[in-house]
Design a protein that fits this description.
By secondary structure, the protein is an alpha/beta fold. Helices cover 47% and strands 14% of the residues. The chain has helices spanning 2-14, 37-47, 62-70, 92-104, 115-129, and strands at 52-55, 73-75, 81-83, 85-88, 109-112. It is flat, with a radius of gyration of 21 Å.
């Protein structure tokens, strides 16, 4: 909250006349879940039925898979446990091939990557076709 207040004070002081926003406290009794975008995607995968996640540890893609590794079993609202197998591979190509292989066996699978990892996969696949 300290950083938010500092940013608010800075904007109010340096943008006089054009700063029309105000912070108001909201009282609530409801339960709230605070999470990052990577955590939300990871939870969505498990609760959506994904059972195999493959990845090569490249930033920022590794954050999602590391969250899944730490929470491989998630309890749903109805009390059931959902689980996922997370596999760290030696490179991005192995990750996409592993996810494809899992899908071919009938498992709902996914892989995570980043911009450079995706570019590498595309370049290698294009090179094979030539």
């Amino acid at each position: 909250m300290f950083a938010l207040n500092q940013a608010y004070d800075y904007a109010e002081e340096n943008f006089k006349g054009s700063f029309i926003h105000s912070l108001e406290k909201t009282n609530t009794n409801e339960e709230r879940l605070f999470l990052t975008g990577n955590q939300a995607v990871a939870m969505g995968k498990v609760l959506g039925g994904c059972r195999v996640q493959t990845y090569y540890p490249i930033t920022p893609a590794a954050d999602e898979s590391e969250y899944l590794e730490a929470h491989q079993i998630m309890r749903t609202r109805n009390g059931e446990d959902e689980a996922i197998v997370v596999i760290q591979t030696e490179d991005e190509i192995a990750a996409v091939n592993s996810a494809s292989g899992a899908a071919l066996t009938g498992a709902r699978s996914a892989t995570s990557t980043s911009g450079p990892g995706f570019s590498l996969m595309v370049r290698i696949e294009l090179g094979r076709k030539q």
